[in-house]
Amino acid sequence: xxxxxxxxxxxxxxxxxxxxxxxxDSSGTSDLPALQTNQPGHSTAEETASQSGxxxxxxxxxxxxxxxxxxxxxxxxxxxxxxxxxxxxxxQTDSDIFELIPQTPYSDDYNTVLDIAQEEQRTxxxxxxSGSIDNIEQYDVIYVGFxxxxxxxxMILYTFFDxxxxxxxTIAPFCTSGGSGFSGTIxxxxxxxxxxxxxxxxxxxxxxxxxxxSAVSGWLNETGLAK
Length: 227
Hints:
The chain is of the alpha/beta class. It contains 6 helices and 6 strands.
């Protein structure tokens, strides 16, 4: 009887340990610190509802009503840094949001992505975007975010600007990088969208991108875009 009781206790302990391990694994996958780097990284799209390139709209209780100017956050992210800033802007402005996801996904390997990014710049590539924005005409303000890759926007941003006419809209750029800022990308945007109004952008260093709310709030107030 003692042996049977001991066997039951050991089995129960093993079952409890296994259940706890499974719970810890499932709760720790929403944020991957290894992807929060100062380097071009892999988009965290697979961790969000936008992984198919679909438009996420603001909730009904956000205060967005018919006839009121609406805003849209469009961004590309690989390491998750730019996505963190994009989500902060979305939450503070009640914007809709759309992630630029390449139809051909980038590698998870940093060195491989470096090579691809440089080759895309060299060939002036236009990576195809997964999904589309069918109602972009309804937005007055477009927040456009990206990491600085080799002193330029990732080439998928060029695909976006080639695909949509933003004439008459206000473009609010935001950028993450290890320290190089916007480089010449603001002037590039002005040449790509000459009939849009491009305001002063927000640059956040990659090391600060995981907690961007204060910087985003200050920028929105300075530019008059705060809700």
